[in-house]
Amino acid sequence: MREASTRQRVFVLGLDGATFTLLKPWAAVGKLPNFKRVLDGGAHGILKSTLPPLTPPGWTSAITGVNPGKHNIYSFFKPMRRAYRRRVYNARDIKAPKLWEILGASGKRSIILHLPLTYPVDPLNGLMVAGMMTPVGAAHYTYPRELADELRRVIADYRLNVDTTYARAGRLNTLLKECLEVTDIHCRETLYLMERKPWDLFFAMLHTPDLVMHMFWKFMEPRHPFYPGPNEFQDAILQCYRRVDVLLGEILERLDESSHLLILSDHGFEMTRKNVFITNWLVHSGYLVLRRARRLAFKRALFKAGIQRERLVKHLEAWRLAWVPKLFPESIKNQVPRSRPSFQNIEDHIDWTRTRAYFPSAGGSAIYLNVKGREPLGIVHPDGEYAALRDEIIERLGELKDPETGRPVIGAIHKREDVYWGEYLDHAPDIMLLPASGYFLNEGLGDEVISRAGGGKVERSGNHHMDGVVMLYGPCVRSGVEIQGARIIDVTPTILYLLGLPVPDYMDGRVLTEALVPDYIERVPVTYTAARFEASTTSGFEYTEEERMSLEERLKDLGYM
Length: 561
Ligand SMILES: [Zn+2]
What we know:
The chain is an alpha/beta fold. 35% of the residues lie in helices and 18% in strands. Helix 1 packs across helix 2, helix 8 packs parallel to helix 10 and helix 9 packs antiparallel against helix 10.
């Protein structure tokens, strides 16, 4: 074991959605030799995600060390004043100081690649390439700006994101090829920058494992209701993990002996057997009232008859009539529902003067009450009525059972103040939901409350789980130990400690000392500071209308709205 030195560096590999339920068995049978090396030679454990276990709150908690009540990010969408329609979050909505800002204030350099919610890119001491929620075609997505030119020059076919329109069109072959290609490109980028640029913290994030697990889980899992039998996508997820394993090997080769490696995911993953359509449940239970509109009846009838936008486009393509949809204005196209009905599909049809609760997005896993003075047409009184209604919904939803099994479909229901704390608590949803294992909480359009999931080509058969992963490896890390009780808010304090810096005392997380060699902790105790670090910018930012629409299309392709 080496002495702490100012040359100590930390390399962080972020794997969106990575889960031990796949990693460990594959590592054990020799399919992921480099992960096996890290598991055997280091410390690891389940990393509890945020509620909901979702990319924006998850990664934001990982890079700030605080809970969503302090950083302000609860899902992909921020509630807007005087509007029910939500806007996608951007980097400037994060209210807590970010890891690289804290490091920058101590003169340490960071290289940050593809973390979600890093657009627009603000200056930092180091380099940054923006990640998820960067608009397609954005002109400036790196710091410094010239970095983008350099990357395009040295890395063939360089690109930021997977083209998710393949998911929309159900072109799974092309989608998988694209996912593996983008993984390779980001691996080459990581190794290139790791070798050539100076850094104290290197934080590289790969989003593709998440996308591949959403789309291909049922092809791997014979217990899934829509497992098609032996098939060409059987190993799609393994292929993706193996690419990451190769990258991990290359990283390990390049790390010097005094450096540490931390691998984490923002949430885990599991098979989804069934959808629970919360919007439909709210309608059935009388909390959400739809206007009797002919347009809505038409939409629901189309949906029931199986006429959906994705299928229509596919058939037109097959008939070589792909140009037909382009002739129609958006307003007409919107009359044909998507295969996964979203809140947007029904929002215009809600009678807000009689609606007391609503469920605005699939990924958000949360119910909002239609509160007087807060929502534009709110009817629920903030005193008394709010508390009583919330208790009633929590009780009734807790009783919602799957008729096939007789067991509850919601795993946990929380009031916001029971799971979050901090100055942005009042932006939080009123009720937070966590589905029971195997269920996905969806929006809805129609009568069904519970139905089988993952049937169509574009419907997801895998979804997020609270149990993410954390792995630590390096000179001060105990080897071969499994740690308990790690949370995603513990990541930033642990990185700060490994870099020889004090932990700001406003942080909710703690240093994962049980993963570290006791002698070392004794000699170099954890220290705290009362210093506040100001975010690098306070000015707001909004995407243009066009950017917002392209981001929303992407989120629809990914199944988050
Ligand atoms: Zn995901």
